[in-house]
Records
---
Amino acid sequence: MPNAASSWSKYPKAAVATVAALGVLATSASAEITRETERFERKRISAGEEVSRELACPRGTNLTGGGFALYNLPDDAAPFVVTASYPLDSAWRVEIRNVSDAPEPLAFRIYALCSDQ
């Protein structure tokens, strides 16, 4: 997608991998990804405001990784900074801050990678 920023991370924290494109991820032989859960949201963010969202794995599965994607960012200066993207219990959490001086529209997607193991 044009004008998209993304990140994927692999859990546990000791083995974190980040890539620049969606659909590319590395998994260990011991954790087979059986489900990718995602949530898309659009929201107008006030100047200086931070938004945080969590996405949990379905019951009976374990979190093995996660990530995010930001969409429709301007080419010259992105008004948003991802301040955190990390596992939290059985969910993936993302925190995004508007660093501009004005309200800005934000479109983003959160991913949770889940395994039956």
---
Amino acid sequence: MVMYLIKKQLVTVLRKGVLMKKRLLSYIEYAISEVERSDIDKAAFREQLLIQIQFFQHERLVHLIVTVTFAILFMMTAGLFFITENMSLLLLGGLFLLLLIPYISHYYLLENGVQKLYTVYDKTV
């Protein structure tokens, strides 16, 4: 039962990460193309861009909290394993690590994407 729940969580994380990656990358492309146009209302675009940046910042914050939580859980499990040498803790630590890797990858994407949107915003000022 536990393995099923962890597998389901991992699939959900990967699926949502792929959708957010597509959304973020397509919005960055859209924002860059809009900034390069000369016939747009810069103030309206800047306002829309700020709203999207706030959405992505919120997503980044949530993933930072989740990533740090899983990292702490992994470190605690590893520490307990080294103290007690209980093999079930090794398995649990491996599962935390298995979930931690996609979270780190996704957070990296969000962080770099938001930074890119900051540079796009700076071009509108």
---
Amino acid sequence: MRRWAFVIASLLLGCGASHDALLRRAEVELSCPADALRARTLVDALGTGKTVRVEGCGRGRTYTQMCDGSEGELIRSCTWTR
């Protein structure tokens, strides 16, 4: 259910790094199966919600979405960094 909510929110916000890509990365970096991961969006000072904390298997990492263009651009590339 959480994944679908994030996917829908991502589509409404426009182009961006996908939640699935974030979970695949976290799965490798945390050595934890995707079904054991929990992701929650952290609200930053601007309220953008571009920071996500992923936890699972006793470990956790915080990721921030970084994009190469501004929010209004039609074509831009985004990725998750830590």
---
Amino acid sequence: MEKQKELTRLTLDIPTDEHRKLKSMAALTGKSMRDVLLQALDYIDIECLVSAHIPNNETQKVLEEIENLENLVRDKQAEIITKKLGL
């Protein structure tokens, strides 16, 4: 039997637009906002944050494009986005 984890309450004040994004992500994936945030934490590479890691050229180029809002795939429906991305 799995031991139950101790829980701690977290209260965040975030901009309305960011709240809408979080709520939309939760709705599109059928998850709670809590689950979306916990999943995002799983993707954060702590080693990368605390090390002197430098992304390779391809990653740097993609990050620059994202910052400049270039080559982004946008749509209002998740199904269409996944088709555009070939997923």
